[in-house]
Amino acid sequence: MNAEKLLEQMHGLKSIFDEKESELTGLDREIGDGDHGVNMKRGFSAVNDKVSAGSTQDILKQTGMTLMSSIGGASGPLYGFSFVKMSEVAKEEIDGENLMEMLEVFDRTVAEKGKVEGGEKTMYDVISKSADLFREKGSLSLEDLQQLAEETKDMIATKGRAAYFKEKSKGTIDPGAQSAVYIIHALGEGVEK
Amino acid sequence: MTEILIISHSSEIAEGTRSLVSQMAGDTVIHASGGVDGGIGTNVDQINDMLEKIGDDTVCFYDIGSSRMNLEMAVEMYDGPHQLHISESPIVEGSFLAAVENSVGSSTEDILEKLKTMKK
């Protein structure tokens, strides 16, 4: 993936999150405060407006800074800061190896800044498994990423707002895990091992 | 001279803590901010803006939830000339202690040491 394609992918997330707003809002109403859909939509709408052409590093950094300043709560800063950190390792042509490197940075950043581990029903459950998924399958399909999000259904939330719902959080996909599916898919679309 | 940064979810807490601390240590520079868009919250931009204004090494205090995460991110992205330290001490008692120590001439290291062993 080159800079031009990456910019198209980042801008393209606006229409994805426009389309998925009600889905994410629905999930977040079940186990959160119901603002994840509108937050992601607002964030990527700002990305579409503000992020302009440049190197892959510029684009990822601009995306991160924009997300950090336009989405409240924990998910905006975590996604935003992860993009900033990924920008530091991105190459001009993001190939399979570089994508894995970026996904590992994504993993480390969310773990460290979100103080989260696997199995806690969060975005991290998708992010932390995506590098392995890519290694195993050679690409990142929407179906395979969705499967990772589905696995959060049976988990009980212990982090974030959903933790207040305890056992009741079972049966619903974590909204952060669901939004992570779209973001990682956009980062990896068309990249092969 | 060491400066103090206060980031809270509430503008009233930030301003209230600033006035409390200023009364005891009026010569200490305090950067305080709280709330987002007139409501409750913190964000990274707001902390970045405060960090642009610091003039010396700074001890930073945060209150609850995501303020710590946002502060950590802003500190990690800071590329200015000063040393930034995040204190785990409670925002009111911690900033108060830091300002009083600062006003009697303690070094940043001494202030951090005192904060580590402080009891409410």
How would you characterize the overall build of this protein?
The complex is a heterodimer of chains A (193) and B (120). Helices cover 66% and strands 0% of the residues of chain A. With 193 residues, chain A is mainly alpha-helical. Chain A has one domain: Alpha Horseshoe (Serine Threonine Protein Phosphatase 5, Tetratricopeptide repeat), CATH 1.25.40. In chain A, helix 2 packs across helix 3, helix 3 runs antiparallel to helix 4 and helix 6 crosses helix 7. Chain A starts with a helix and ends in a 5-residue tail after the last helix. By secondary structure, chain B is of the alpha/beta class. Chain B has a single domain, classed as Rossmann fold. Chain B is globular and about 35 Å long. The two termini of chain B are 25 Å apart. The mean pLDDT of chain B is 94. Classes of the chains: A mainly alpha (193), B alpha/beta (120). Chains A and B meet through helix 4 of A and helix 3 of B.
Give a brief description:
With 193 residues, chain A is mostly helical. Chain A contains eight helices and no strands. In chain A, helix 4 crosses helix 5 and helix 7 (142-150) packs antiparallel against helix 8.
Instruction: Count every beta strand of chain A, where a strand is a DSSP E run of 2 or more residues.
Output: 0
- The radius of gyration of chain A is 15 Å
Low-confidence stretches of chain A: none
Quick check: average pLDDT of chain A?
93
**Which radius of gyration of chain B do the C-alpha atoms yield?**
13 Å
Could you name the CATH topology of chain A?
Serine Threonine Protein Phosphatase 5, Tetratricopeptide repeat
* Helix and strand run of chain A: HHHHHHHH
**What multimeric state do the chains show?**
heterodimer
SS content category of chain A: mainly alpha
Stretches with pLDDT under 50, minimum 5 residues of chain B: none
Helix percent of chain B reads 40-55%
What do we call the CATH homologous superfamily of chain B? Phosphotransferase system, mannose-type IIA component
Could you name the CATH class of chain A? Mainly Alpha
- Share of β-strand residues of chain B: 15-25%
Helix fraction bin of chain A: 55-70%
Q: What overall geometry of chain A do the principal axes of the alpha carbons give? A: globular
**Greatest interface by residues involved:** A-B, 13 and 12 residues
Instruction: Output the strand order for the largest sheet of chain B.
Output: 2-1-3-4
